[in-house]
Amino acid sequence: MRLFHRLLVVTALLLLIACTTSPTGRKQLMIISEEAAINSSKTAYVEMLKPYQEEGKLDNNPALITRVERITGRLIAQAIEMRPETRQWAWSMKILDDPKTVNAWAMAGGKMALYSGLVEQVEPTDDELAQVLAHEISHALAKHTAEKMSVALASQLGMVAVAASTESQTVLAGSMLAAKLAIDLPNSRTAEAEADRIGIEIAAKAGYDPRAAATLWRKMGQVSGGRMPVFLSTHPSPSNRAETLGKLAEEMMPYYLAKGERPRFNY
Predict the structure, then answer these.
(1) How many CB atoms lie within 10 A of CB 243?
(2) Any long-range contacts for 151-160 (C-beta under 8 Å, 24+ apart)?
(3) CA–CA separation, 158 vs 174, rounded Å?
């Protein structure tokens, strides 16, 4: 019983002190630091890409690479405007040749991937594709990988107690499996709403029509013969999401309509 009480005390203390703030001002539980999540994501990213590379299915469509790099470069430039310290990240976007998979994801530190199936099945315009990529960039900006790892860790009382020491936290956070799980597990609706909000803003500031966010989600719901795309299974979509995105688009239109040169980030 004494051990159990100690675990409760440690958990309570961690929940009180292990907090940070997202770009939208939301308080986040952050037992796993963003730095630790970035370090674990580096290894996980390489391992997740390895099978595609071995099969010759990594970055093998020059036209799509050029298109995605052009869009991503403009989006990352705006992401850096929002969080200047992310200029130091080793940003990376890879195209995975998988026509059957409609998905995209981002890890901590700007490690991203886009499946060719999303482009081939959804057939997004540049404005719509920018919404997908901006949404994923926003997950990285808002520290959602570290947050998901932290929530998973906090749900296991014994692990929380072990993680109280910095050394143990590094060991746990450095787990490649933990970073992979942060990709596979669905984002919370709170995280999704936040990525929508940030993503549509940076896309608009990069010169992409914010109204494309709503048309993208409608297209996404129509692909795969009515079957749910992987993207929607890991990005839970409430029924009113298109309506909410439409309202956000109205708010972001001044950014889109503003004149001026839009920078591109070379990553």
Answers:
(1) 11
(2) 151/29, 152/178, 152/181, 152/185, 153/31, 153/32, 154/11, 154/14, 154/15, 154/29, 154/31, 157/7, 157/8, 157/11, 158/7, 160/7, 160/10, 160/11, 160/14, 160/31
(3) 18
Q: What is the dihedral sign for C-alpha 25, 26, 30, 36?
A: negative
User: What is the residue whose two structure tokens read 């081939």?
Assistant: 120
d(CA 202, CA 79): 6
Confidence of residue 176 (pLDDT cuts 50, 70, 90): low
Token pair 């919404």 is found at 131
- Residue reference for tokens 């963003």: 34
Tell me how far apart the terminal alpha carbons of the chain are, to the nearest angstrom: 53
pLDDT in tens, 7-47: 444 454 454 445 677 676 777 767 788 998 999 899 999 99
Using DSSP, how many helices (H) and how many strands (E) does the chain show? 13, 5
Residue ranges per domain, the chain? 32-144+175-257
Residues 6+ apart with CB under 8 A from 220: 102, 122, 229, 231, 232
CB 221 within 8 A of CB 249: no
